[in-house]
């Protein structure tokens, strides 16, 4: 009788432990799905050099927005922006001569922003954002919602 009771209790412990392990595995699978979806929504086409650069460009424009509003832009354009011509895209067929021309226009707008008089820095900032918008309307419309929110109301 003692052996049957011991076997029954052992079986119950194993059964409960297995059920808890399955629950944990299910919870982990659900968390992995959530993490994967979050990653996809941030960068659905992968982490190409150009995609990473675009995120850095977004961070840069966000970091100088308040400075431009205050009319206190100074210094030189960050060097990393010049890598727009050499960064490898997710889809190489998207980079053509028009892309290079648009990249040059963007870089010129950023340089202009850094050298503008305080009273016209908001306008120059919006010109930079407009270059982003124009390019993304042509090549990759996904970020347009975010880009349109970057403008400084005049």
Describe this structure in words.
The protein is an all-alpha fold and 154 residues long. It has two domains: 1-42; 49-148. It is 68% helix and 0% strand. The protein contains five helices and no strands. It has helices at 2-42, 49-70, 97-114, 121-138, 144-148. Helix 2 runs antiparallel to helix 4 (121-138) and helix 3 runs antiparallel to helix 4 (121-138). The longest helix has 41 residues, at 2-42. The protein is globular, with a radius of gyration of 26 Å. It starts with a helix and ends in a 6-residue tail after the last helix. 10% of the residues are buried. The model is unreliable at 21-26 and 35-40 (pLDDT under 50).
Distance between the termini: 87 Å
Silhouette: globular
Mean pLDDT: 82
Radius of gyration: 26 Å
The H/E string reads HHHHH
How many domains make up the coordinates?
2
Helix content: 55-70%
Question: What class do helices, strands and sheet pairing give?
Answer: mainly alpha
Number of helices: 5
Provide the β-strand percentage band. Answer: under 5%
Biggest sheet architecture: none
The overall strand count is 0
The unreliable regions are 21-26, 35-40
């Amino acid at each position: 009788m003692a052996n049957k009771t011991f076997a029954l209790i052992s079986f119950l412990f194993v059964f409960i432990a297995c059920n808890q392990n399955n629950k944990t595995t299910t919870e982990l699978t659900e968390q992995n799905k959530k993490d994967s979806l979050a990653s996809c929504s941030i960068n659905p086409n992968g982490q190409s050099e150009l995609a990473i650069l675009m995120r850095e460009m977004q961070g840069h424009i966000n970091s100088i927005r308040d400075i431009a509003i205050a009319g206190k832009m100074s210094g030189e354009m960050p060097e990393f922006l010049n890598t727009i011509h050499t960064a490898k895209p997710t889809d190489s067929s998207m980079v053509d001569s028009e892309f290079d021309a648009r990249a040059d226009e963007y870089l010129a707008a950023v340089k202009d922003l850094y050298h503008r008089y305080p009273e016209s820095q908001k306008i120059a900032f919006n010109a930079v954002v407009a270059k982003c918008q124009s390019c993304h309307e042509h090549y990759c419309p996904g970020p347009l919602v975010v880009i349109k929110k970057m403008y400084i109301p005049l």
